[in-house]
Design goal:
This protein is α/β, with parallel strands linked by helices and 294 residues long. The chain has eleven helices and nine strands. It has a single domain, classed as Rossmann fold (3-Layer(aba) Sandwich). Bound molecules: NADP nicotinamide-adenine-dinucleotide phosphate.
């Protein structure tokens, strides 16, 4: 499956390498002898990793919401290594609150980081991959990029948007030798719930029944009154992502975790059941004179 010469030379560019899934992936890739452009808002957080693998890393400051930093980071990667083989759009965070409770500014901030920044990084790296006629882009979505949940709808919106552009992008760039994989993790034990979740300050009583328990649990976890042991192991997520990149036939969607698999299966079943139940109404919307090919 793996061509060792390519494998030795591969250059990865990972956003949000400071902690969580991004860091686990960077460490695992480096342990395998590959090269990583480590990026973080605060480069202090990646200094240790860069020092452990000085010949195989470049540590760059990158807040993905700053286009000038995106341009500079990609430029440095190309200047140093001459190529980017694997781009991992990983940096992200979540907002917890009902659709009506999340302030406009917070909605926009959430889309800036989880969607527009990914688009910016993609569009900055793609010209190099097109020139190479090779490359693999992993867009870290979520099980929540396929299934939406009460209380995280704005976050889900950002991840659904990522899935939407990724599907189209895959069709556009596959003929150019570039592969796209959407990664859909379930719950993984990172800093996501403790450090990367913003709980809205607006609370509308009518929504308490539906999302009150979720909000309370999130607060209790932050206050260390509740221990939350996510089942997913970031190291194993890293190995699964590497397996997809090593594959000659990588998936468009890589689902990570049993919890994610069962949530996605449940959604597929319910979409299919609803599609079947309403098919007659759906097809009865065509002009009478139009005969569609079966
Ligand atoms: N953990 C899960 O259960 C889970 C499930 C599904 C999807 N995901 C997705 O996985 C990705 C990584 O999350 P995680 O679980 O590893 O959480 P994490 O441990 O909290 O890590 C989040 C990473 O994103 C970085 N980041 C956030 N905003 C940034 C920005 N503007 N510029 C650059 N970096 C930024 C953080 O950097 P700082 O150190 O500077 O904050 C950190 O490195 C996210 O896209 C998340 O939506 C996670």
């Amino acid at each position: 499956m793996v061509t060792s010469s390519i494998y030795q030379k591969r250059v990865w560019f990972i956003t949000g390498s400071s902690k969580g899934l991004g860091r686990a992936l960077a460490e695992t890739v480096l342990e395998r002898g590959e090269t990583v452009v480590l990026t973080a808002r605060n480069p202090e957080q990646i200094k240790d990793l860069a020092a452990s693998f000085p010949e195989h890393t470049l540590a760059v400051q990158l807040d993905v919401t700053k286009p000038e930093e995106v341009r500079e980071a990609v430029k440095q990667a190309i200047t140093n290594f001459g190529r980017i083989d694997v781009l991992v759009n990983n940096a992200g965070y979540g907002v917890l609150g009902a659709i009506e409770e999340v302030r406009n500014e917070e909605v926009r901030r959430q889309f800036e980081t989880n969607f527009f920044a990914v688009l910016e990084v993609l569009r900055t790296v793609l010209p190099h991959m097109r020139q190479q006629r090779s490359g693999h882009i992993l867009n870290i979505s979520s099980v929540g990029g396929f299934v939406s949940y009460a209380g995280t709808g704005i976050y889900n919106g950002t991840k659904f948007a990522i899935e939407g552009i990724s599907e189209a992008l895959a069709q556009e760039v596959t003929p150019l030798g570039i592969k796209i994989t959407i990664v859909e993790p379930g719950a993984f034990r990172t800093n996501f719930v403790t450090r990367s979740l913003v709980i809205t300050d607006i609370q509308i009583n009518d929504y308490e029944k539906v999302i009150g328990a979720m909000r309370k649990d999130a607060r209790d976890i932050l206050d260390m009154k509740l221990e939350f042991n996510e089942p997913g192991d970031p190291k194993k997520a890293a190995l699964a992502m590497i397996k997809a990149v090593d594959s000659d036939n990588p998936p468009l969607r890589l689902v990570l975790g049993e919890d994610a698999i069962s949530a996605i299966n449940a959604k597929l079943d319910s979409v299919k059941a609803e599609l079947d139940a309403w098919t007659e109404v759906s097809v009865d919307t065509t002009f009478d004179e139009v005969v569609l090919a079966k």
